[in-house]
Write a structure and sequence with these properties.
This protein has 331 residues and is an alpha/beta fold. It has ten helices and twelve strands. Helix 3 (112-122) packs parallel to helix 5 (158-170).
């Protein structure tokens, strides 16, 4: 998309496995392998998949918290993957992250003011009184009393801590935020409050989100488009309503069948996938999903061999709807 705020092209992140006296690389864990997508300004892209599929690694690599093995990440026309020094430092102000664990991502020795103000200090924004006022204003925006500024993280509940994490990211007036499973560590009663807060902030400040989660119901609520990830690769990407109504990849269909619902008319037939997720150190040949694919079992022998031998490309099967499956039309 020409108006993309963020453009990820063939992104890779491999973790080398070293053995022996000389610490030679004997294999690679292919956590993210050939991932491509665009996010337009003001859009929320949901990234879903099983634990260990590479969602979090993809988010952190996009922000250069991890150096990519290959590929490009373009943000506002600038290559994040190739940026260094002052160029990367300036980019970080516009690209922020909210981590999954609100208990582990806050420094217990710093006050709330120090935590939220830290990014302002690093980026040399404002005088000391101006930064203090900015902290007060940001805490109000996330629903916290500014009088909490001199307290420490251990004095807050999980939901309040996550609001502090959101405030820390929001203080720098970013344009793009990676939300790495921001509600998975919270009580169910608090999750909806945080999700609604994120939606309100997105509308108010025209933010762009990459929302990483394994909760498909939440992703459907907050996302404009959804990308389904499996074993380091994107299997399907489509507008949220279209993907949830008619998935065009067997893995997406299996994931959606696991969503609990009280409406008998909306209930899908449960699909139980055989076996376990293969190791990203030694992924299957051809289509990575073929050992567990229920669609493959219905194909003839020649088509089954194609699944085993030929790596499928992401194909556009409808407007904005792409799938990494040789036989998506047969679903």
């Amino acid at each position: 998309m020409t108006d993309a705020l963020l453009s990820v092209d063939r992104l890779e992140k491999f973790f080398p496995i070293r053995r022996g006296l000389l610490s030679r690389v004997v294999a690679n864990v292919k956590a993210v392998d050939d991932v491509s997508f665009d996010i337009s300004e003001g859009e929320t892209l949901g990234l879903v998949g099983e634990s260990g599929c590479g969602k979090t690694t993809a988010g952190r690599t996009i922000l250069r918290l991890l150096d990519p093995t290959g590929g490009t990440v373009m943000f506002q026309g600038r290559d994040v993957a190739a940026a260094h020094g002052n160029t990367l430092w300036r980019l970080r102000r516009d690209m922020q992250i909210v981590f999954q664990d609100p208990f582990g991502s806050l420094n217990p020795r710093m006050t709330i003011q120090g935590i939220v103000e830290e990014g302002l200090v690093v980026h040399r924004m404002g005088t000391r009184p101006e930064r203090r006022e900015k902290v007060r204003e940001t805490l109000e925006q996330v629903g916290l009393d500014p009088s909490y500024m001199n307290r420490y993280p251990h004095e807050f509940s999980g939901g309040q801590r996550q609001r502090i994490c959101v405030a820390r990211a929001l203080a720098l007036n970013p344009r793009f935020m990676v939300l790495d499973e921001p509600i998975s560590a919270l009580d169910v009663s608090i999750q909806s409050q945080i999700i609604n807060l994120l939606v309100e902030l997105r509308e108010k400040f025209k933010l762009t989100y990459l929302f990483i989660s394994h909760d498909l119901s939440v992703v459907e609520y907050i996302s404009d488009r959804v990308a389904v990830m499996y074993l380091g690769q994107i299997m399907e990407l489509a507008p949220a309503q279209l993907l949830y109504r008619k998935p065009l990849h067997p893995y997406s269909e299996a994931l959606l069948s696991s969503i609990p619902t009280m409406d008998p008319k909306a209930r899908r037939a449960r699909i139980v996938l055989p076996g376990d997720v293969p190791s990203p150190m030694n992924p299957p040949s051809g289509c990575r999903f073929h050992p567990r694919c229920p669609l493959r079992a219905k194909l003839d022998a020649a088509d089954q061999r194609r699944c085993e031998d030929e790596v499928p490309a992401l194909r556009e099967l409808a407007a904005g709807h792409v799938s990494r499956c040789h036989f998506a039309e047969k679903m």
